[in-house]
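Re: your question from the hallway

Yes, I did run it. Sequences:
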Amino acid sequence: MAKRFGEKPVFADVSFRLARGEAVALVGANGTGKSTLLRCLMGLIPASSGSVHLLGQQTNAATGRQLRALRAQVGLVSQKHNLVPRLSVLSNVVHGLLGKHPGLRHWSHSLAPHASRVAAMSALERVGLADFANRRADRLSGGQSQRVAIARAIVGTPSVLFADEPCASLDPSAGEDVMELFFRLVRDEGVSVVFTSHNIEHALRYGDRVLGLAQGRLRLDATAVSLSAADLRGLYD
Amino acid sequence: MTDIAPTRFSLARFERPSAIAFLGYVFGLVIIFWCLAGAGFSLEKVASSPPRFADFATRAFPPNLEPQVLARLGWKMVETLQIAVAGAVIGVILSVPVALLAARGLIAGPWVNHTVRTILGFIRAVPDIAWALVFVVAVGLGPFAGMLAIAIDTVGFCGRFFADDMEATDKGPAESLTATGARKIDVVACATIPGAMPAFVSTSLYALEKAVRSSTILGLVGAGGIGIELKVGFDLFDYPTAMTVILMIAVVVIAIEAVSGWARTRIIGEQR
Ligand SMILES: Nc1ncnc2c1ncn2[C@@H]1O[C@H](COP(=O)(O)OP(=O)(O)OP(=O)(O)O)[C@@H](O)[C@H]1O
Ligand SMILES: [Mg+2]
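Structure:
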């Protein structure tokens, strides 16, 4: 796959397979296109060339309806969290179910069916924010809003999870908690997780495999056990 | 190097206009004088107006403050505000679906966006008093015609600005909800509209101010409200009553602007 913004190339010749129940760490310097790659994988922006096969479907050939059905099985945590600022935390998490349950009842937690509210609350519990359910999303700290974004991504029990720097605004202990949560999703529920990180230690410890982007190419694709921290640092030169 | 520097200061302080620019200035002046002539500008009339204005002022002052007149005008003013509020509310409600169609890249394609925006432009281009005349013909004399005029005027204004507000909201939340597999309409309802809400409130309050200002003159064409009293006052040379109407309108418009400014800061002030 390749991606250009206008004439400006971001990356080219990026090709990899993601196995079921695998955790993949995507690393690379700022601006190498990690976020762009994840958005291409979700079909949010079109790839300039190449194709994406996700859960047995080719996203760039899918109809709108197929694409929505596909996205409903995939969770995305954006680097910028992207919560809806004026709504409550719980409503934001309930929105994570819109793919599976379109329509008015999932616009707000007040209208949502009991089962959806329970699912949203338990997702919030998993990220340790059950006490914040009623808080407005724009009254959260950076780390809290990041964890709400994670709750929104996992509330629909996705089979694939893309997380863009999920620990970037978290303190070290909350960061470990989130990575442990992902680790459990992979081990216990067979979810495939792709996460980007600037934390080399996280990448090696929680990733089964590490992909490294540099100079617009996929420079690294190896199992985590075969790599050392020095190998990853080499990507940033 | 240093011997070049002084030549820099020999640059003229003022650029000489080019021939084209000079012609442009002359043309501009000619247009302005042509417009003044067309507007019947006459220094004699300006010079002779102070005594006539003073004559009007002495006949209009003091304003008519008789209790029955005040009560009658007061009720007319209440009707005026009813027209303004009802029209503005209906207009704001109708503006939301219209704006959804007018906003680029939201739910409708470019062709629909363009058509709706053109129609809204037409609605705004027709003055409110002309809409009132049209509705007086359509539904007869009275406040209902005025209310319809205010409503359509509000759609022209809010439909366009709501659409602009939605185009300007942060696309991030909408993208993240699209990533959950939500339909466009759900994304708009859950991310775009909540994101644009502060701007909607602000725009709606301006629409209300505008509606109150318009509603005070709709009576001139028989579309209800206090405007009719102004017309009758001048027609009957009852200047003191006309003066009371003018003062009441001024007070109400200033008050509504103050209230709406207060509401704006209360509702959206803290988080801009
Ligand atoms: N919408 C866009 N239009 C044009 N260029 C873009 C756009 N989005 C990103 N880019 C450019 O593409 C490149 C890759 O951006 P991207 O956000 O994917 O990097 P990243 O690897 O996620 O970086 P970081 O580590 O800082 O998050 C950058 O040079 C960026 O400026
Ligand atoms: Mg990024």
